[in-house]
Amino acid sequence: MDVAVIGGGPAGLAAAVRVYKEGITNVMIIERDMELGGILPQCIHDGFGNFIFGEMLTGPEYAQRYVNQVEEMGIPVMLNTMVLDISAEKKITAVNKDGLREIDAKAIVLAMGCRERTRAQILIPGDRPSGIYTAGVAQRFINMEGIMPGKRVVILGSGDVGLIMARRFTLEGAEVEGVYEILPHPGGLTRNVVQCLQDYDIPLHLSHTITGIEGKKRVKGVTVAEVDSEMKPAKETERYIPCDTVVLSVGLIPENELSEKVGIRMDSRTGGPVVDEYMETSVSGVFACGNVAHVHDLVDDVSEAADTAGKGAALYVKGTRNPREIPVTVTPGRNVRYVVPQIIQGRNPENVTFYLRVKEIEKNVEIIVSSNGRKICEKKERIVRPPEMVKLQMSTELGDIRNELLIDVEE
Questions:
Q1: 111 in Cβ contact with 12 (< 8 Å)
Q2: 326: pLDDT confidence band, cut at 50, 70 and 90?
Q3: What is the mean pLDDT of residues 44-68?
Q4: Which of 254, 296, 367, 382 could covalently link to 272 via disulfide, CB atoms 3.0 to 4.6 Å apart?
């Protein structure tokens, strides 16, 4: 096998398609679920594909566009197959109904996506009744299984899936008492705050959290409270809210157990591997893309980054990559929490796309890329917010950069 893609969601599909288009036809997709598409089949709302396909699609429609390409190209797919291990020699150990399988690949693309943070990981005290769901689980119940999780709902966290589910519960006849966010600003895209909360008169309570859950067999209610600047709940602001369902939308964690097993260098800020401009990790011939590298806001950006990883994997197999002896480090500067890619390895890369998130909200800023005090590229932004990823496409050649690139957000 020339290229093995682990994960059949939007990232894996786009990466496999690009590998094939680059002339490497011996490529396969390994997916643990019973169908391709990842999370997209349960995302029945629109808003996908505006940048890639030039039209607004639902999640299933967007996934089907890539599934059709995979089928037309004849790319083999192994469904219901769990990858247990990968080695630095790019040997994949997987298991399915036929037993244990070992697959040798020349290059591997990691596209395992991410998982939701659970109640146990944010340490909410109280009883342990039924009726507590992550937003993605609630979404699957309603949209794919036809099951209504509850009728009176409290949502903790204002991530995009939580905002979308506030609207979905309302449309299905449930009462959403409110969305409670511990931060002083929403955790999701502005468009989702407007379309999912404001348009449906669903209250958003910033700087609030749940301090307790009550119920024996089923959730009976929750206690919420305001938090101070140190994120500590103020006892005097506590109030009790009767409800039968608690939905958690408190963040996503990249699925990198396989990455860590193979010894890939990780970035604690993104939760994903350190990658170069072709999304290659510190292990030669192993690439990472999509939410396994860092959590994206838009599926279009996932597909775009996966396209880059697919091209990189194809070039690796062809043996046409010409890396530097010493990679250039990309350093987050003022008001920048992280940048992807974290290194530049090509001798003369062109059209590099940087993805970054800011630490704080700022208006009328410039994103500046510099090296040794010399400004290389800049981009003006009307507003930057932590929940909304900033994308910076550089057409400038970077061949003469020697040590590091610094990316700042300047007012």
A1: yes
A2: confident
A3: 95
A4: 254
Tokens 């920048």 found at: 336
**List of domains in the chain:** 1-115+252-321 (3.50.50.60), 118-250 (3.50.50.60), 326-411 (no CATH)
Site of tokens 């507003």: 383
DSSP-derived pairing of the beta strands 343-346 and 57-58 = unpaired
pLDDT, one tens digit per residue, over 202-243 is 999 999 999 999 999 999 999 999 999 899 999 999 999 999
What is the structure's pLDDT at 397? 63
**Amino acid code (one letter) for 62:** Y
Provide the pLDDT confidence category of residue 367 given band limits of 50, 70 and 90.
Answer: very high
How far, in Å, CA of 174 to CA of 167, rounded? 10
Query: Can you give the chain as a three-state secondary structure string?
Result: CCEEEECCCHHHHHHHHHHHHCCCCCEEEECCCCCCCCCHHHCCCEEECCCCCCCCEEHHHHHHHHHHHHHHHCCCEECCCEEEEECCCCEEEEEECCEEEEEECCEEEECCCEEECCHHHHCCCECCCECEEEHHHHHHHHHHHCCCCCCEEEEECCCHHHHHHHHHHHHCCCEEEEEEECCCCCCCCHHHHHHHHHHHCCCEEECEEEEEEECCCECCEEEEEEECCCCCECHHHCEEEECCEEEECCCEEECCHHHHHCCCCEECCCCEECCCCCCECCCCCEEECHHHCCCCCCHHHHHHHHHHHHHHHHHHHHCCCCEEEEEEEEEECCCEEEEECCEEEECCCCCEEEEEEECCCEEEEEEEEEECCEEEEEEEEEEECCCCCEEEEECCCCCCCCCEEEEEEEC
pTM for the predicted model, two decimal places? 0.93
